[in-house]
From TrEMBL:
Family membership: Belongs to the GDA1/CD39 NTPase family.
InterPro entries, per the entry: GDA1_CD39_NTPase
Membrane spanning stretches: 15-36
Protein name per UniProt: Ectonucleoside triphosphate diphosphohydrolase 6 isoform X1
Domain of life: Eukaryota
Amino acid sequence: MRKIPSNGNLKMTKVAYPLGLLVSLFIYVAYIKWHWASATQAFFSITEVATGARRGQQARTALGTAARGHEVFYGIMFDAGSTGTRVHVFQFTRQPRGTPTLTHETFKALKPGLSAYADDVEKSTPGIQELLDVAKQDIPFDFWKATPLVLKATAGLRLLPGEKAQKLLEKVKEVFKASPFLVGDDCVSIMNGTDEGVSAWITINFLTGSLETPGRSSVGMLDLGGGSTQITFLPRVEGTLHTSPPGHLTSLQMFNRTYKLYSYSYLGLGLMSARLAILGGVEGTPAADGKELVSPCLSPSFKGEWEHAEITYRISGQKAVNLHELCASRVSEILRNQVHRVAEVKDVDFYAFSYYYDLAANVGLIDAEKGGSLIVGDFEIAAKYVCRTVETQPQSSPFLCMDLTYVSLLLREFGFPGNKVLKLTRKIDNVETSWALGAAFHYIDSLNSRKSRAS
Ligand SMILES: *[C@@H]1O[C@H](CO)[C@@H](O)[C@H](O)[C@H]1NC(C)=O
Ligand SMILES: *[C@@H]1O[C@H](CO)[C@@H](O)[C@H](O)[C@H]1NC(C)=O
């Protein structure tokens, strides 16, 4: 309410009015200045920390840089496998203008796998929450908003009918969106074999340091799972690029570079699927009339049952003059024309994982804890030895002769000579060599480059 000034006050008003205005202006300016300063200070200290990880090199986190001269950022990767779900919380550190290194990893696993909730997706929530709590405990509060949260599913969900898998993933996405972490629209997905192989390739090349130094030769990756087997490496020979069949080359963007990788996943050539094929069974189909599957790769006196993909098969060995020879010719039939051979693989350093490791450790070719190196021919020597032994005495592991014979011939099919050295390991620098690290790292890198393209 304003008073209408009377004539007697007019003189006074003439002075007081500008004075009042000046005072209010002063108070206003002082207020704004103080308020702006404290507000922006608070704003910057939050967003710098929060966006630092995403902006990568251009914006070092206020805390990280000021205090220790390096930037710290995190990534959360959920690995939704067929038997369980696992969370990995990765902490990376980057020196100014340097390549990030992994400085800490926390993980926790829960059983059963997501696919167990296919018919009641609500029930999947408590497990996801429990794993999210691990991430919350591990990552400082200030970093939550900037830390990407991702779930990638493998075999288990790949096998579910599309609609069921989609419903499960939608549920997970809903739970993720309600979390305090950085959640994009692409936060949940199902990986195919190539994605898995490429991510594992990133993991080992990140851990061996070959991504840091352009030009330093990279290492290749061999993986042998139950259902499929993967080979991934970076070709350096033009001929490899030109002669690769369609679908065997894939392009990968990392650190502002493009890698043209050779990567292929052979479905049905994983160790368990191969066993079934060698036994003469058909994937997903019980033997007709419960017929026994007979194989020269089992001990001649062996009779038993074997479960694969929820079907139980009756299996038995057969008499043979030379078990290994007969087994090898059966395995060769299975592998004939299945694998694309690349001449260049003999010149690339390869790491081999999963069943390659387990089998080699099982027969003492490598240390079961520390891993080690072997030559491809060692698998063949072991196969011959084991097959000869089971001819006369049944073994505690009835499949060992078959598995070793299969692995030795599979590696030959890929084009590895007998004297080719392979490295078998579960850990490099004490970090587990799973695809999860590479996938998390690549995801963070792609956020960074999207961000720098946008700005
Ligand atoms: C695997 O999935 C990726 C996308 O995640 C796609 O680019 C690629 O073509 C797929 N590869 C195969 C062999 O299906
Ligand atoms: C990425 O590479 C391109 C071309 O090589 C270069 O112009 C650009 O500056 C690079 N960006 C970063 C962030 O290094």
